[in-house]
Amino acid sequence: MNRQLHIDPEYPYVYETHLHTCEASACARSGGADMARRCKEAGYTGIIVTDHFVYGNTAIDRSLPWENWVNAFCKGYEHAKQEGDRIGLQVFFGWEACYRGTEFLINGLSKEWLLAHPEIRDCTIEEQFELVHADGGMVVHCHPFREESYIPEVRLFPEYTDAVETVNATHSCVLSGSHNDPQFDERAKAYAEEHDFPQTAGSDIHRVDLFFGGIAFKRKLADSRDYIRAVMGREPSLLLNGNESV
After folding, report:
1. d(Cα 8, Cα 2) in Å, to the nearest integer?
2. Nearest CA to 126 among 101, 99, 146, 90?
3. Residue 246 belongs to a domain
């Protein structure tokens, strides 16, 4: 039997907040429908599909017209959502924006929003924050202290950040084969506490071999905007790193 989540009875609703699909992320190995099925089987209540955006490790041809690019980019989410609706798994939409190795998870917006805002493609970090906030979205600085060859330097933008991913399961989970250094999360936690940011957790998963990270809540979320309310409202939760709750 495939490994399952350990569900805390006080926090039974578990969400994977950082997940990639091979339809849109060049580094991913599993499609949206397969990811949805495996996460449901493992015990997740829901997932947030956060594929790599235009200047990240995207699998979509950047030369495409904006509408075509967005339609192709959203395929992983759409396949996951279709399967999630069929099997009873909540699937929310987001993306992972990249600025020379500095990356942010964007939550609370939609495919329709992307189609209507082509300026998000080439905006600065400051402009991203303003655009996302203007329509009620949330900007999470993910794995802010990760050190890898594709990250030229650690850069922090506290004035343009809503929350910080302080637990990324690829850093600590015994199942992870990359980015293994718990200090990346320890430094992120210290940074979040210094600036009093809400904290999130996710697996940064790219295939159906799950790491079992994410956030566990006491209640079921209604949608991606409700996820923002839960995070920014600092609702009681467990941050999961794949090994234990922290």
Report:
1. 19
2. 99
3. no
